[in-house]
Amino acid sequence: MKINLHEDIPDSGLILDISEEPEKIAPLLHGLDFSVEGPVAAHLEIMRTKEGALLTGHLCAALRLTCSRCASEYSLRVEPDFTLYYVVGIETEHEKELHASDLEVTMIPIPELDTDDILISQIAVELPIKPVCGEKCKGLCPKCGIDLNSERCGCVIEEEPVVDTRFAALKGFKVKR
Ligand SMILES: [Zn+2]
Ligand SMILES: [Zn+2]
Q1: pTM
Q2: Strand 2-4 relative to strand 35-48: parallel, antiparallel, unpaired?
Q3: Which of 15, 18, 26, 170 is deepest in the core (most CB within 10 A)?
Q4: 74 CA from centroid of ligand 1 (Å)
């Protein structure tokens, strides 16, 4: 949903309760490493300011992620609260300094907000860098690839021998007598 800061926000502020179906969100996640399960619900309050808009919000979403250890899919619930301050225009160096100590400012070239963009960027902030299905996930066997969470294999995992690089050059070198 697009919101024009001049036309769509009453003086008392705009309160939005949104629920976006996963089918609508899916095409917007292009290039991101997750999908959503069920609708993404959000409560947004937008106040017009002299420079742009102040937005506070809360969202709830269930994400489907791929475990970085065992490659299985798992669900993760995220419920971030956020405050965003929008300033319309192109930021000058002087303004950058003024805003540096302030809360984070997002510059927008035109007086318009896109709620889909807001939801997706706030979900993206919540994504774990290394998604893991559970603390105790044992991952896959590095030899046979079996999922060690549900199965067991007889592989013997040898510790990689530490090769002293000083002697590596001598490997395969036969001494002639
Ligand atoms: Zn896992
Ligand atoms: Zn194995």
Answers
A1: 0.76
A2: unpaired
A3: 18
A4: 8
